């Protein structure tokens, strides 16, 4: 098992964080709006928690996909 602090993990966590933040910015979606959109999917998060979770970048793949679905993202450019 790879440690959370392993440089490979750190790199991919940063990539996921930057992809999500970029998609939010591209669509003009605030954390408050994201919280509302997630709520419509039955996912309870508040603006502050979203800000902290996304800023840290250590979120799950499930959370990442939930956010993308909530904002209507169907494609990502990885590089």
From TrEMBL:
Residues 12-76 form the DUF6471 domain. InterPro entries: DUF6471. This is DUF6471 domain-containing protein.
